[in-house]
Amino acid sequence: MTDGSPATARPPIAPPAALTDPERLRALADTGLEAAPDEAFDRFARLVSDLLDVPVALVSLVSADRQFFPGAVGLPEPWSERRQTPLSHSFCQHVVDIEAPMVLPDARLYPRVRDNLAVEGLGVVAYAGMPLTDLAGRVLGSLCAIDNKPRAWSAAQLRTLADLAAACSSELRLRIALDGAQEARRRVVQAHERLELLAGVSETLAGTLDVGTALHRLAAAMVPLLADWCLLTLIGPTGLPREVVSVHRDPARAADVDRFGELLRTGLSPESSIRAVLRTGQPRLGSVASLADVTRGTTHPEMASIAGRLGIASYLSVPVRGVGGTVLGAITLVNGGQRQQFDDRDLLTAVDIGRRAGQAVGNSSMYGEQRHVAEVLQHSMLPRLPVVGQLELAARYQPAADRVEVGGDWYDAFVQPDGDVIVAIGDVAGHDIEAAATMGQLRNLVRGNAFGRPDAVGALLSNLDGAIRGLRLPIAATATLVRICPQVAGVHEVTWSNAGHPPALVVRVGGTVEALEAAPEPLLGLARPSPRTSQSTNLATGDTLLLYTDGLIERRDRSIDEGLAELVGRLTGVDTLPLDEVCDLLLASIGHREDDTALLAVRAR
């Protein structure tokens, strides 16, 4: 008895055309049955064997290239173990082809089947097969009775076999209906998940104005919910990829997917699907894909081998469109062989995500440009610090986090003709271009009002109040003005006046910190004519004077006094650090910046 090995196999015969009908094959797949025992269909096979008194009975389902038996009795080995045979051993394929019962008293006498390898390999001589159908009448296989000797099938036996086939067909239809219900349930769940994903995508993209952060968050949101791995590609001025974000559902594949994304930037061939999407703006769906698609679409041979490790069985690629429909990039989703192929529903979801991503990328790019302009404008308004032999100066300016507007914080330092050094810091109300313009006016007023005049700093601020009122400038600002006189016997005399600004701090040699506090005085621009006061202190060699704006100490979750106490604690003991390091340390301690921050530090030498 043969098992169909190449030594005994006969030349293959083309299968009947009915076997490859897509609708029939889809219904066959919907049964969920395979080449494995199923108790319900084994029961049908036993009934056929008992009621018709045959040694072999089969529930045989026929695909495009094989037949398999969820129900079987009496099969010889090795077929009993395998539960399937190639079509070269199939009589049931002819039942599918003719869509009618096939009854053969002696198969060896019928040209259609006499050369079939089942005659020799399975001992099929007498055969009676009844069609097994789905609700649409498509024949999926056969319920068959087989004898190893010639047999005259009686009408009662054939009627019994037909009744059992009808019952067996009902069971198949139930399996198909169950699979359909499960598929419908899966689709409902998928639709719900996609709606949640789209809502989450909008929230994810709205949560940041940084392009790189937005792309990484978007990739993480799509994998593994929509795909096994994905590539987010942004193009440069030449239309070719300039940035690629790649993510795989398996963390162990992170190095592979990162390498694939790195090569993709320069490795797309003219036949690449991604390149076609970037060029035309039209989405592409590859329901069935293989490594051949990767090889054809890339110029780096390494990419195909990496894709083999990552897994590719289907893909889709959609454009990322900006304002006016401009293609900014592409989203490519890839599934391996263990996952369902992409379909039109997946494509529509991805197109929607691409549209939302395009809006976010466009907003981020616009924000980046505006922020760059704002920062350039802000820094252009901040002065260069003078070089003074007996003093070391350092300054910093840092805008609020995630804010495009130019702020009103400022500082200044300049040397008087007599050698005194004037330093100042201030904060104009507001965080917009008007505040910046006002800040520029105020800084220039401070310089013009103080330069070359020996007046006390309190008097200078009083004159400044008068200038603001006389010129009718809409200025409301805090400020601190300081005059530092050249040292005498190793000590610098410091006089200061404060117009509603946070108190300056002095870090003494040895690490102690003093706050330069006095009775509060009104903001600039709001005061009625009244003289302002001047206060004095000294700076010994190594002492540091720190001027700052309220962005350094003010938080929504605490009072200014608490912020000031924290700043004093942070400054304790920093007298041994270089001045630039002190400034950087203070800025780094802010965390999320809720307001602009300016610092000006002066150390006596």
Automatic annotation (TrEMBL):
Ranges for domain PPM-type phosphatase: 391-604
SUPFAM superfamilies reported for this sequence: GAF domain-like (SSF55781), PP2C-like (SSF81606)
Keywords noted in UniProt: Hydrolase
Gene3D superfamilies, per database record: 3.30.450.40, PPM-type phosphatase domain
SMART domains, sorted: GAF, PP2C_SIG
Annotated transmembrane regions: none
Location of the GAF domain: 36-182, 210-371
Keyword Hydrolase: yes
GO molecular function: phosphatase activity
Protein name: Stage II sporulation protein E
Lineage, top ranks: Bacteria, Bacillati, Actinomycetota, Actinomycetes, Micromonosporales
